[in-house]
Protein backbone atom coordinates (compact mmCIF):
# COMPACT_ATOMS: atom_id res chain seq x y z
CA UNK A 1 0.00 0.00 0.00
CA UNK A 2 1.39 3.32 -0.96
CA UNK A 3 1.73 5.76 1.86
CA UNK A 4 0.64 8.65 -0.31
CA UNK A 5 -2.12 8.38 -2.89
CA UNK A 6 -1.81 10.43 -6.06
CA UNK A 7 -4.16 13.09 -4.72
CA UNK A 8 -2.14 13.36 -1.53
CA UNK A 9 1.10 13.76 -3.43
CA UNK A 10 -0.40 16.76 -5.17
CA UNK A 11 -0.94 18.36 -1.78
CA UNK A 12 2.79 18.42 -1.33
CA UNK A 13 4.02 19.14 -4.84
CA UNK A 14 1.54 21.84 -5.86
CA UNK A 15 2.66 24.48 -3.37
CA UNK A 16 6.26 24.00 -4.46
CA UNK A 17 5.70 25.66 -7.81
CA UNK A 18 2.31 26.39 -9.33
CA UNK A 19 0.59 27.28 -6.10
CA UNK A 20 3.53 28.62 -4.16
CA UNK A 21 2.44 30.43 -1.00
CA UNK A 22 4.81 33.34 -1.51
CA UNK A 23 4.94 33.97 -5.22
CA UNK A 24 1.37 32.96 -6.16
CA UNK A 25 -0.84 33.06 -3.11
CA UNK A 26 1.06 36.10 -1.73
CA UNK A 27 0.94 34.88 1.84
CA UNK A 28 3.53 35.12 4.57
CA UNK A 29 5.74 37.69 2.94
CA UNK A 30 6.27 39.62 6.15
CA UNK A 31 8.68 37.26 7.80
CA UNK A 32 10.03 35.84 4.56
CA UNK A 33 11.96 38.93 3.62
CA UNK A 34 13.41 40.24 6.81
CA UNK A 35 15.45 37.23 7.85
CA UNK A 36 16.85 36.05 4.52
CA UNK A 37 20.16 37.91 4.66
CA UNK A 38 21.70 34.67 5.97
CA UNK A 39 21.00 31.17 4.78
CA UNK A 40 21.07 29.66 8.26
CA UNK A 41 18.35 31.96 9.54
CA UNK A 42 16.25 31.20 6.46
CA UNK A 43 16.51 27.45 7.02
CA UNK A 44 15.60 27.70 10.68
CA UNK A 45 12.70 29.98 9.86
CA UNK A 46 11.46 27.56 7.21
CA UNK A 47 11.64 24.63 9.61
CA UNK A 48 9.86 26.57 12.36
CA UNK A 49 7.08 27.55 10.01
CA UNK A 50 6.81 23.97 8.77
CA UNK A 51 6.39 22.70 12.31
CA UNK A 52 3.79 25.33 13.15
CA UNK A 53 1.73 24.95 9.97
CA UNK A 54 1.75 21.16 9.98
CA UNK A 55 0.93 20.75 13.66
CA UNK A 56 -1.53 23.63 13.64
CA UNK A 57 -3.30 22.17 10.63
CA UNK A 58 -3.64 18.83 12.41
CA UNK A 59 -4.96 20.42 15.60
CA UNK A 60 -7.45 22.64 13.80
CA UNK A 61 -8.53 19.79 11.58
CA UNK A 62 -9.20 17.59 14.62
CA UNK A 63 -11.21 20.37 16.24
CA UNK A 64 -12.98 21.54 13.08
CA UNK A 65 -16.35 20.13 14.08
CA UNK A 66 -16.42 21.64 17.55
CA UNK A 67 -15.15 25.15 16.86
CA UNK A 68 -18.03 27.63 16.64
CA UNK A 69 -17.43 29.51 13.42
CA UNK A 70 -17.94 32.91 15.05
CA UNK A 71 -14.92 32.67 17.30
CA UNK A 72 -12.74 30.55 15.05
CA UNK A 73 -10.20 33.31 14.43
CA UNK A 74 -9.45 33.60 18.12
CA UNK A 75 -9.25 29.81 18.51
CA UNK A 76 -6.84 29.65 15.59
CA UNK A 77 -4.72 32.46 17.00
CA UNK A 78 -4.47 30.69 20.34
CA UNK A 79 -3.44 27.40 18.70
CA UNK A 80 -0.79 29.15 16.61
CA UNK A 81 0.46 31.22 19.52
CA UNK A 82 0.88 28.10 21.67
CA UNK A 83 2.85 26.33 18.91
CA UNK A 84 5.00 29.39 18.29
CA UNK A 85 5.81 29.68 21.98
CA UNK A 86 7.06 26.08 21.82
CA UNK A 87 9.28 26.89 18.84
CA UNK A 88 10.55 30.02 20.53
CA UNK A 89 11.43 28.21 23.74
CA UNK A 90 13.20 25.42 21.86
CA UNK A 91 15.22 27.96 19.87
CA UNK A 92 16.13 29.87 23.00
CA UNK A 93 17.27 26.67 24.69
CA UNK A 94 19.29 25.10 21.86
CA UNK A 95 20.21 27.91 19.48
CA UNK A 96 20.38 31.05 21.54
CA UNK A 97 22.50 33.07 19.12
CA UNK A 98 20.19 32.27 16.26
CA UNK A 99 17.12 33.16 18.26
CA UNK A 100 18.72 36.56 18.84
CA UNK A 101 19.15 37.04 15.09
CA UNK A 102 15.58 36.03 14.38
CA UNK A 103 14.46 38.23 17.29
CA UNK A 104 10.83 39.23 17.00
CA UNK A 105 10.36 37.38 13.75
CA UNK A 106 9.78 34.12 15.58
CA UNK A 107 6.87 35.79 17.33
CA UNK A 108 5.65 37.10 14.03
CA UNK A 109 5.09 33.55 12.78
CA UNK A 110 1.79 33.94 14.65
CA UNK A 111 0.58 36.51 12.20
CA UNK A 112 2.17 34.78 9.24
CA UNK A 113 -0.68 34.77 6.77
CA UNK A 114 0.24 31.31 5.44
CA UNK A 115 -0.81 29.75 8.70
CA UNK A 116 -4.18 31.43 9.03
CA UNK A 117 -4.66 31.04 5.31
CA UNK A 118 -4.16 27.27 5.38
CA UNK A 119 -6.35 26.91 8.47
CA UNK A 120 -9.17 28.75 6.78
CA UNK A 121 -8.76 27.28 3.33
CA UNK A 122 -7.86 23.68 4.13
CA UNK A 123 -7.79 22.44 7.71
CA UNK A 124 -11.38 23.50 8.46
CA UNK A 125 -12.66 21.27 5.67
CA UNK A 126 -10.33 18.27 5.62
CA UNK A 127 -9.16 15.40 7.80
CA UNK A 128 -6.01 15.48 9.92
CA UNK A 129 -3.71 13.41 7.65
CA UNK A 130 -4.46 15.43 4.53
CA UNK A 131 -4.22 18.66 6.50
CA UNK A 132 -0.85 17.56 7.78
CA UNK A 133 0.37 16.95 4.23
CA UNK A 134 -1.06 20.26 3.10
CA UNK A 135 0.77 22.00 5.90
CA UNK A 136 4.05 20.29 5.03
CA UNK A 137 3.63 21.09 1.34
CA UNK A 138 2.86 24.76 1.83
CA UNK A 139 5.61 25.24 4.36
CA UNK A 140 8.00 23.51 1.95
CA UNK A 141 6.98 25.90 -0.83
CA UNK A 142 7.53 28.79 1.56
CA UNK A 143 10.84 27.36 2.71
CA UNK A 144 11.99 26.82 -0.87
CA UNK A 145 11.65 30.52 -1.69
CA UNK A 146 13.24 31.47 1.63
CA UNK A 147 16.23 29.24 0.94
CA UNK A 148 16.66 30.45 -2.65
CA UNK A 149 16.59 34.06 -1.48
CA UNK A 150 18.87 33.22 1.45
CA UNK A 151 21.44 31.55 -0.81
CA UNK A 152 21.45 34.42 -3.29
CA UNK A 153 21.71 37.12 -0.66
CA UNK A 154 24.35 35.43 1.47
CA UNK A 155 26.46 34.25 -1.45
CA UNK A 156 26.56 37.58 -3.26
CA UNK A 157 26.27 39.80 -0.23
CA UNK A 158 28.86 38.30 2.10
CA UNK A 159 30.52 35.67 -0.09
CA UNK A 160 29.64 32.91 2.37
CA UNK A 161 27.17 30.04 2.63
CA UNK A 162 26.06 29.00 6.11
CA UNK A 163 29.07 30.98 7.33
CA UNK A 164 31.61 29.06 5.19
CA UNK A 165 33.73 31.27 2.97
CA UNK A 166 32.98 29.55 -0.30
CA UNK A 167 34.33 32.36 -2.48
CA UNK A 168 37.59 32.79 -0.58
CA UNK A 169 38.61 35.28 2.05
CA UNK A 170 37.73 38.90 1.32
CA UNK A 171 40.29 40.28 3.78
CA UNK A 172 43.30 38.19 2.78
CA UNK A 173 42.32 38.27 -0.91
CA UNK A 174 42.22 34.59 -1.62
CA UNK A 175 40.02 32.65 -4.04
CA UNK A 176 37.81 34.82 -6.24
CA UNK A 177 38.82 37.93 -4.33
CA UNK A 178 42.35 37.55 -5.65
CA UNK A 179 40.88 38.19 -9.12
CA UNK A 180 39.41 41.49 -7.99
CA UNK A 181 35.94 40.24 -7.07
CA UNK A 182 34.05 42.31 -4.52
CA UNK A 183 31.05 41.50 -2.35
CA UNK A 184 27.86 43.20 -3.38
CA UNK A 185 26.88 45.12 -0.26
CA UNK A 186 23.51 45.87 -1.79
CA UNK A 187 22.42 42.25 -1.24
CA UNK A 188 22.64 42.62 2.52
CA UNK A 189 20.31 45.57 2.93
CA UNK A 190 16.64 44.68 3.41
CA UNK A 191 15.22 46.07 0.12
CA UNK A 192 17.38 43.61 -1.82
CA UNK A 193 15.14 40.79 -0.59
CA UNK A 194 12.14 42.40 -2.26
CA UNK A 195 13.95 42.78 -5.53
CA UNK A 196 15.22 39.19 -5.45
CA UNK A 197 11.71 37.89 -4.79
CA UNK A 198 10.42 40.14 -7.58
CA UNK A 199 12.91 38.58 -9.96
CA UNK A 200 11.97 35.05 -8.82
CA UNK A 201 8.35 35.90 -9.60
CA UNK A 202 9.40 37.20 -12.96
CA UNK A 203 11.29 34.02 -13.85
CA UNK A 204 8.52 31.77 -12.60
CA UNK A 205 5.83 33.59 -14.54
CA UNK A 206 7.84 33.71 -17.73
CA UNK A 207 8.18 29.94 -17.53
CA UNK A 208 4.50 29.45 -16.87
CA UNK A 209 2.44 32.11 -18.68
CA UNK A 210 -0.79 30.79 -17.15
CA UNK A 211 0.20 32.56 -13.93
CA UNK A 212 0.43 36.03 -15.47
CA UNK A 213 -1.92 38.54 -13.85
CA UNK A 214 -4.35 40.80 -15.60
CA UNK A 215 -3.35 44.39 -15.32
CA UNK B 1 10.43 66.08 24.81
CA UNK B 2 13.47 65.58 22.64
CA UNK B 3 13.23 61.81 22.94
CA UNK B 4 9.61 61.97 21.82
CA UNK B 5 10.51 63.89 18.68
CA UNK B 6 13.41 61.58 18.02
CA UNK B 7 11.35 58.43 18.42
CA UNK B 8 8.62 59.92 16.25
CA UNK B 9 10.82 60.58 13.26
CA UNK B 10 12.83 57.43 13.78
CA UNK B 11 9.78 55.19 13.67
CA UNK B 12 8.31 56.91 10.64
CA UNK B 13 11.38 57.12 8.46
CA UNK B 14 14.32 55.07 9.68
CA UNK B 15 12.58 52.04 11.14
CA UNK B 16 9.68 52.23 8.74
CA UNK B 17 7.44 49.21 9.28
CA UNK B 18 7.39 48.27 5.63
CA UNK B 19 10.66 49.42 4.17
CA UNK B 20 13.03 48.33 6.87
CA UNK B 21 11.34 45.41 8.65
CA UNK B 22 8.69 44.27 6.13
CA UNK B 23 5.80 44.10 8.56
CA UNK B 24 2.27 44.01 7.28
CA UNK B 25 3.38 43.12 3.78
CA UNK B 26 0.41 40.84 3.15
CA UNK B 27 -2.23 43.52 3.47
CA UNK B 28 0.17 46.05 1.99
CA UNK B 29 0.26 44.03 -1.21
CA UNK B 30 -3.38 42.97 -1.19
CA UNK B 31 -5.09 46.28 -0.39
CA UNK B 32 -2.92 48.71 -2.34
CA UNK B 33 -4.70 48.66 -5.69
CA UNK B 34 -6.65 51.86 -5.01
CA UNK B 35 -5.66 54.95 -3.06
CA UNK B 36 -9.04 55.27 -1.34
CA UNK B 37 -8.99 51.80 0.20
CA UNK B 38 -5.32 52.16 1.07
CA UNK B 39 -6.12 55.32 3.03
CA UNK B 40 -8.89 53.49 4.90
CA UNK B 41 -6.67 50.59 5.88
CA UNK B 42 -3.79 52.88 6.76
CA UNK B 43 -5.97 54.94 9.07
CA UNK B 44 -7.26 51.78 10.73
CA UNK B 45 -3.70 50.57 11.28
CA UNK B 46 -2.64 53.86 12.91
CA UNK B 47 -5.70 53.70 15.14
CA UNK B 48 -5.24 50.10 16.26
CA UNK B 49 -1.49 50.50 16.79
CA UNK B 50 -2.09 53.60 18.91
CA UNK B 51 -4.44 51.56 21.12
CA UNK B 52 -2.67 48.22 21.33
CA UNK B 53 0.96 49.27 21.78
CA UNK B 54 0.37 51.22 25.04
CA UNK B 55 -1.94 48.45 26.29
CA UNK B 56 0.65 45.79 25.63
CA UNK B 57 3.25 48.06 27.18
CA UNK B 58 1.22 48.03 30.40
CA UNK B 59 0.87 44.24 30.19
CA UNK B 60 4.58 43.87 29.62
CA UNK B 61 5.52 46.25 32.41
CA UNK B 62 3.18 44.92 35.11
CA UNK B 63 2.70 41.25 34.27
CA UNK B 64 5.15 39.79 31.82
CA UNK B 65 8.70 40.96 32.29
CA UNK B 66 11.16 39.55 34.78
CA UNK B 67 10.10 40.59 38.26
CA UNK B 68 7.14 42.57 36.95
CA UNK B 69 4.77 40.93 39.41
CA UNK B 70 6.58 42.51 42.36
CA UNK B 71 3.68 44.91 42.87
CA UNK B 72 1.58 41.94 44.04
CA UNK B 73 3.96 41.38 46.93
CA UNK B 74 7.59 40.40 47.45
CA UNK B 75 6.90 36.67 47.07
CA UNK B 76 5.91 37.24 43.43
CA UNK B 77 9.08 39.09 42.51
CA UNK B 78 10.81 35.98 41.16
CA UNK B 79 8.36 35.21 38.40
CA UNK B 80 9.25 35.80 34.76
CA UNK B 81 6.26 35.30 32.52
CA UNK B 82 8.05 36.52 29.42
CA UNK B 83 7.27 33.32 27.51
CA UNK B 84 3.59 34.18 27.65
CA UNK B 85 4.02 37.45 25.82
CA UNK B 86 3.09 36.15 22.35
CA UNK B 87 -0.19 34.68 23.45
CA UNK B 88 -1.13 37.65 25.65
CA UNK B 89 -0.21 40.20 23.03
CA UNK B 90 -2.18 38.51 20.28
CA UNK B 91 -5.14 38.00 22.59
CA UNK B 92 -5.07 41.71 23.51
CA UNK B 93 -4.90 42.65 19.87
CA UNK B 94 -7.76 40.37 18.84
CA UNK B 95 -9.98 41.59 21.67
CA UNK B 96 -9.11 45.24 21.13
CA UNK B 97 -9.88 45.00 17.45
CA UNK B 98 -13.28 43.50 18.25
CA UNK B 99 -13.93 46.13 20.93
CA UNK B 100 -12.85 49.00 18.74
CA UNK B 101 -15.12 47.69 16.02
CA UNK B 102 -18.13 47.60 18.37
CA UNK B 103 -17.42 51.02 19.87
CA UNK B 104 -16.83 52.70 16.53
CA UNK B 105 -19.97 51.14 15.10
CA UNK B 106 -22.01 52.48 18.01
CA UNK B 107 -20.66 56.01 18.23
CA UNK B 108 -19.55 56.91 14.74
CA UNK B 109 -21.32 55.03 11.98
CA UNK B 110 -19.64 57.24 9.37
CA UNK B 111 -16.18 56.26 10.59
CA UNK B 112 -17.33 52.65 10.85
CA UNK B 113 -18.41 52.66 7.25
CA UNK B 114 -15.00 53.80 6.13
CA UNK B 115 -12.87 51.81 8.60
CA UNK B 116 -15.21 48.97 9.51
CA UNK B 117 -14.47 46.48 6.77
CA UNK B 118 -10.74 46.73 7.45
CA UNK B 119 -10.84 46.15 11.17
CA UNK B 120 -11.21 42.34 11.10
CA UNK B 121 -8.35 42.20 8.60
CA UNK B 122 -6.15 43.97 11.04
CA UNK B 123 -6.16 41.38 13.82
CA UNK B 124 -3.85 39.24 11.73
CA UNK B 125 -1.78 42.07 10.30
CA UNK B 126 1.85 41.48 11.21
CA UNK B 127 2.42 45.21 11.63
CA UNK B 128 0.18 45.28 14.70
CA UNK B 129 1.78 42.36 16.52
CA UNK B 130 5.15 43.52 15.25
CA UNK B 131 4.59 46.94 16.82
CA UNK B 132 4.04 45.35 20.22
CA UNK B 133 6.94 42.93 19.88
CA UNK B 134 9.35 45.67 18.80
CA UNK B 135 8.08 47.82 21.65
CA UNK B 136 9.07 44.98 23.99
CA UNK B 137 12.39 44.24 22.27
CA UNK B 138 13.48 47.86 22.23
CA UNK B 139 12.71 48.45 25.89
CA UNK B 140 10.56 51.51 25.42
CA UNK B 141 10.69 53.35 28.71
CA UNK B 142 7.42 55.14 29.40
CA UNK B 143 3.76 54.81 28.53
CA UNK B 144 3.93 58.12 26.66
CA UNK B 145 6.77 56.85 24.50
CA UNK B 146 4.90 53.62 23.83
CA UNK B 147 1.88 55.61 22.65
CA UNK B 148 4.15 57.74 20.52
CA UNK B 149 5.78 54.63 19.07
CA UNK B 150 2.41 53.12 18.20
CA UNK B 151 1.17 56.24 16.43
CA UNK B 152 4.38 57.00 14.59
CA UNK B 153 4.99 53.50 13.30
CA UNK B 154 1.36 53.49 12.19
CA UNK B 155 1.98 56.72 10.29
CA UNK B 156 5.04 55.15 8.69
CA UNK B 157 2.94 52.23 7.50
CA UNK B 158 0.23 54.59 6.30
CA UNK B 159 2.73 56.60 4.24
CA UNK B 160 4.13 53.47 2.68
CA UNK B 161 0.79 52.02 1.61
CA UNK B 162 -0.38 55.41 0.37
CA UNK B 163 2.73 55.78 -1.77
CA UNK B 164 2.54 52.31 -3.29
CA UNK B 165 -1.19 52.64 -3.98
CA UNK B 166 -0.61 55.89 -5.84
CA UNK B 167 2.19 54.30 -7.86
CA UNK B 168 0.09 51.25 -8.66
CA UNK B 169 -2.77 53.42 -9.87
CA UNK B 170 -0.41 55.09 -12.32
CA UNK B 171 1.48 52.00 -13.36
CA UNK B 172 -1.65 50.55 -14.89
CA UNK B 173 -0.99 52.80 -17.87
CA UNK B 174 2.61 51.70 -18.29
CA UNK B 175 3.93 48.86 -20.36
CA UNK B 176 5.22 46.42 -17.76
CA UNK B 177 6.62 43.11 -19.05
CA UNK B 178 3.77 40.63 -18.81
CA UNK B 179 5.29 38.23 -16.26
CA UNK B 180 6.09 41.13 -13.94
CA UNK B 181 2.59 42.57 -14.01
CA UNK B 182 0.84 42.94 -10.68
CA UNK B 183 2.83 41.28 -7.97
CA UNK B 184 6.31 41.24 -9.46
CA UNK B 185 6.56 44.91 -10.27
CA UNK B 186 5.06 45.84 -6.90
CA UNK B 187 7.82 43.92 -5.18
CA UNK B 188 10.51 45.62 -7.19
CA UNK B 189 9.03 49.09 -6.70
CA UNK B 190 8.80 48.47 -2.97
CA UNK B 191 12.43 47.42 -2.99
CA UNK B 192 13.44 50.61 -4.76
CA UNK B 193 11.39 52.70 -2.34
CA UNK B 194 13.08 50.83 0.48
CA UNK B 195 16.47 51.81 -0.87
CA UNK B 196 15.27 55.40 -0.92
CA UNK B 197 14.16 55.13 2.67
CA UNK B 198 17.54 53.72 3.67
CA UNK B 199 18.99 57.16 3.09
CA UNK B 200 16.97 58.45 6.04
CA UNK B 201 19.31 56.31 8.15
CA UNK B 202 21.70 59.22 8.40
CA UNK B 203 19.02 61.54 9.74
CA UNK B 204 19.64 61.02 13.44
CA UNK B 205 23.34 60.30 13.53
CA UNK B 206 24.35 63.86 14.45
CA UNK B 207 23.76 65.50 17.84
CA UNK B 208 24.29 62.42 19.97
CA UNK B 209 25.44 64.58 22.90
CA UNK B 210 22.04 66.24 23.11
CA UNK B 211 20.19 62.94 23.22
CA UNK B 212 19.00 61.81 26.65
CA UNK B 213 20.30 58.84 28.57
CA UNK B 214 17.71 56.50 27.04
CA UNK B 215 19.27 56.84 23.62
CA UNK B 216 22.20 54.41 23.78
CA UNK B 217 19.96 51.61 25.00
CA UNK B 218 17.43 51.95 22.19
CA UNK B 219 20.20 52.36 19.68
CA UNK B 220 21.76 49.10 20.81
CA UNK B 221 18.45 47.32 20.62
CA UNK B 222 17.61 48.54 17.16
CA UNK B 223 21.02 47.62 15.97
CA UNK B 224 20.42 44.09 17.11
CA UNK B 225 17.06 43.84 15.43
CA UNK B 226 17.90 45.62 12.22
CA UNK B 227 21.32 44.69 10.96
CA UNK B 228 21.50 47.01 7.88
CA UNK B 229 22.83 50.02 9.79
CA UNK B 230 25.63 47.98 11.24
CA UNK B 231 26.34 46.23 7.99
CA UNK B 232 26.43 49.49 6.10
CA UNK B 233 29.00 50.74 8.54
CA UNK B 234 30.96 47.61 7.95
CA UNK B 235 30.80 48.13 4.22
CA UNK B 236 31.81 51.74 4.67
CA UNK B 237 34.76 50.60 6.76
CA UNK B 238 35.71 48.10 4.10
CA UNK B 239 35.60 50.82 1.47
CA UNK B 240 37.65 53.11 3.69
CA UNK B 241 40.18 50.38 4.15
CA UNK B 242 40.40 49.90 0.43
CA UNK B 243 40.81 53.61 -0.13
CA UNK B 244 43.63 53.80 2.35
CA UNK B 245 45.41 50.89 0.75
CA UNK B 246 44.84 52.47 -2.64
CA UNK B 247 46.34 55.75 -1.44
CA UNK B 248 49.19 53.89 0.12
CA UNK B 249 49.78 52.10 -3.13
CA UNK B 250 49.97 55.41 -4.97
CA UNK B 251 52.37 56.76 -2.39
CA UNK B 252 54.52 53.70 -2.71
CA UNK B 253 54.58 54.12 -6.46
CA UNK B 254 55.74 57.71 -6.09
Can you offer a commentary on this structure?
The complex is a heterodimer of chains A (215) and B (254). By secondary structure, chain A is mostly helical. Chain A has one domain. Chain A has nine helices and no strands. In chain A, helix 3 (39-63) packs parallel to helix 7 (113-123), helix 3 runs antiparallel to helix 8 and helix 7 packs antiparallel against helix 8. The relative contact order of chain A is 0.17. The mean pLDDT of chain A is 80. Chain B is mainly alpha-helical. Chain B has helices at 2-14, 25-30, 35-64, 85-107, 109-115, 119-122, 126-137, 143-171, 183-198, 214-225, 228-253. In chain B, helix 3 runs parallel beside helix 7 (126-137) and helix 4 crosses helix 7. The model of chain B is unreliable at 207-232 and 235-254 (pLDDT under 50).
Brief account:
The complex is a heterodimer of chains A (215) and B (254). With 215 residues, chain A is mostly helical.
Please give the domain count of chain A. Answer: 1
- Biggest sheet details of chain A: none
Strand content of chain A: under 5%
Name the helicity range of chain A: 55-70%
**Shape, principal axes of CA atoms of chain A:** globular
Query: Which overall shape of chain B is indicated by the principal axes computed on the Cα atoms?
Result: globular
Structural class of chain A: mainly alpha
Rg estimate of chain B, integer Å: 22 Å
Q: Compute the number of helices of chain B.
A: 11
Work out the radius of gyration of chain A. 19 Å
Strand percentage of chain B:
under 5%
List unreliable stretches of 5+ residues of chain A. Answer: none
Q: Using a beta-carbon cutoff below 8 angstroms, give the protein chain pair with the largest interface and the number of residues from each chain.
A: A-B, 56 and 61 residues
Average pLDDT number of chain A:
80
First-to-last CA distance of chain A: 47 Å
Oligomer: heterodimer
Number of DSSP helices of chain A? 9
Q: Termini separation of chain B (Å)?
A: 55 Å
Mean pLDDT of chain B: 75
Report helical residue fraction of chain B: over 70%
Amino acid sequence: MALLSKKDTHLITDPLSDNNPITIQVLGICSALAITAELKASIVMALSVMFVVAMGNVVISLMRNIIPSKIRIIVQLVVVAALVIMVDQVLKAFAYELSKTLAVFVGLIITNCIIMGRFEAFALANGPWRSFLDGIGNAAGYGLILIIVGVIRELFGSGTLLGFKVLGDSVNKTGLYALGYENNGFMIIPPAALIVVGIIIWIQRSRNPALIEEN
Amino acid sequence: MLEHIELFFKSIFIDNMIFSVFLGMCSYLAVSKKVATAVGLGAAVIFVLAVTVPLNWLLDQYILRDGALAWLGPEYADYNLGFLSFILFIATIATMVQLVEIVVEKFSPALYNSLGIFLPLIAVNCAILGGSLFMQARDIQTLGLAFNYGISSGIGWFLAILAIAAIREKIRYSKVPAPLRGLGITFIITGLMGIGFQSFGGMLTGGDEAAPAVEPKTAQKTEKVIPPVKKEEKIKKEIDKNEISYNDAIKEQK
